């Protein structure tokens, strides 16, 4: 469930986090098509970006700080460390923000993705509303809205870290990178039990369709992370 609070306007929306991929693969195992990573020690922010500041921000998120709080006063941080099960779809609201600007209120995959986006770029996305320094991509021109390399490049999805995507099936995720063969995402509750994980999969081994995509504007990305080099995230071996 989601409460979207954007400039003090409140809207109630239903969020159902689904488990599309029941398969679990250890980070230490070789898997050509699908990998789940839940071991914090198996990854580093520099695996997904050449920018030192962005890598540091990712490491903070992997360590458990995704700007998600148990209270609206933003005093009780939720530990969302990679591999934790801290964002279940249990109806208990969590809060993203800092008490000074827009606030997102909700649960599950939605609050986790919004927390990561807020931590990286300093904006809340509401229920599909792009902030001043973000853009909502035009998904027109394709009929099926399926996740594919061709659609992502046509829509202008950043090939490195940054895009927040809400899917047609009601899941929210952050893109860490993609190339012609693979896409890597960071999400919460992908297993239906609140799990925070990184997942790398072939395009042909996922069934997502995009509802909306929000990502930082290029000038905002450049201002925050000037050394960032767009790159796809490979499977961690």
- DSSP summary, beta strand count: 12
How much of the sequence lies in strands comes to: 15-25%
Helix content: 10-25%
Query: Helix/strand-derived class?
Result: alpha+beta
* Cα end-to-end separation: 36 Å
Please summarize the sheet with the most strands: 7 strands, antiparallel
Low-confidence stretches: 5-30
Q: Count the helices. How many?
A: 4
Order of helices and strands: EEEHEEEHEHEEEEEH
Described by the principal axes of the CA atoms, the overall outline is globular
Radius of gyration based on Cα positions = 16 Å
Mean pLDDT across all residues, rounded? 85
Q: How do the strands line up in the largest sheet?
A: 3-11-10-9-8-12-7
Key words describing this protein structure:
24% strand; seven-stranded antiparallel β-sheet; 4 helices; alpha+beta; five-stranded antiparallel β-sheet; 237 residues
Describe the structure.
By secondary structure, the protein is α+β, with helices and mostly antiparallel strands. Helix content is 17%, strand content 24%. The protein has 4 helices and 12 strands, in the order E-E-E-H-E-E-E-H-E-H-E-E-E-E-E-H. It has helices at residues 52-63, 108-121, 149-155, 218-224; strands at residues 2-6, 9-13, 34-37, 68-69, 94-96, 103-106, 134-136, 164-167, 172-178, 182-188, 196-202, 210-216. The strands form 2 sheets. Strands 3-11-10-9-8-12-7 form a 7-stranded antiparallel sheet. It has a 5-stranded antiparallel sheet with strand order 2-1-6-5-4, covered by helices on one side. A hairpin with a 2-residue loop joins strand 1 (2-6) and strand 2 (9-13). The protein is globular.
